[in-house]
User: What shape does this take?
Amino acid sequence: MRLWAAVERLNLMIKVPATPAGIPAIRTLVSRRLHINITLLFSVKVHE
Assistant: This one.
């Protein structure tokens, strides 16, 4: 929210990692109708 307010642009898209810590932030941002990009994280093992 702080970053969105600082930029002052309605079309700003915030990237949020899809981690256990990021899920509550994703829910909050979506409920406030902000544009977000949920980044997927893969382990090295999955990548290989």
Residues 2-47 form one domain. The radius of gyration is 13 Å. The chain has one domain: 2-47.
